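Fig. S4 source data, part A: sequence.
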Amino acid sequence: MRLRYGMNPQQATACATPVVPGSCPVRVVHGQPSLINMLDALNAWQLVREADQLLGRPAAASFKHTSPAGVALAGPVDEVAAGPYGPGSPGASGDGVSGVASAYLRARDADPKSSYGDFAAVSRPVDAGLAGLLAGVVCDGIIAPGYDPGTVATLSRKKNGRFLIVEADTAFTPPPRESREVFGIRLTQDRDETPLSAGLLRVVTGPPLTSAAVSDLLLGLAVLRYTQSNSVCYVRDGMTLGIGAGQQSRVDCTRLAGAKADTWWLRRHPAIRDLPFAPGLTRQDVINWQVRLIEADLTAQERSRLASAATGPAAELDPGQRAAWRARLTGVAFASDGHLPFRDNVDHARRHGVTSIAEPGGSIRGDEVAAACAEYGITLARTGLRLFHH
């Protein structure tokens, strides 16, 4: 398969070749992918397929730069998640929206600032509801196991005909080993086929895991399997609230993902949710202004522009308001792709509503990590399974 270009446009010669001749896991239905598009599509498809098989619900992912910005299972869509897409959009009321469309709305809502220009993946065929939703958002392409009649025609008009539509072969079985070449060296390893299951979650401290916590922790582990390491994620009610990817320090991952989880929650504060904006402002501008208000470090120039964009007072939340609202978030699951080396990860995680944690275990300070969980009443489960991905 000839690719549009490689990692960058100046890398003009690029192609994708099946490892086993005549056996390809995907088919390009429309458009011409770049190398990064293919990496996003292949990683995202594996993630949503595994999540669906594991938890039995349609799954969706919003990928950017080979890691997910958000992942979710089908479920209820609240007014904040649906709001930017208008009262007539799929899922705007939470009623009648298809499972696959609700999964994507929830996945995109995890970090809508980062999902701008994403690559989407869903575990079930694209239906008219999802196609209509995708037609109105800034998205570069989608991978799915099939497309209902008329949906390819709808999507192929996006981006002046450059929207990528990729179909995954659900019957494809990957080879047992995978390879890559770096600087003249071919690296080969066994493919990680270790199944994820509730049996991996061995509780070492805290109350027994609820069924909801088990589901959320398993979703978190599936997400981390396809996220650039180091990585952690916060999950609640079948959707990620914050993902920290590719950091050299695990506690930096925890803090980064925690800040994203806080932003997700604070977007639901009445002062942020109900802020009136001038007619004609794009949905992405509305989202970006809400996020900037939450981040509470507006420049003088931004304050001036916001005054023109909003039709009512746009005051930042004070520390007391933020703390009171954050204290209401609970029932959050936290998963880590590697062991937690110090208790500081637990100290930070509990500030974002975490009540259950899954990590491989094996740290020389594992007792301190367990003691921190016991101190906060957090259930700690150790899996014995590292999920690094590079």
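Fig. S4 source data, part B ends here. Residues 35-55 form the longest helix (21 residues).
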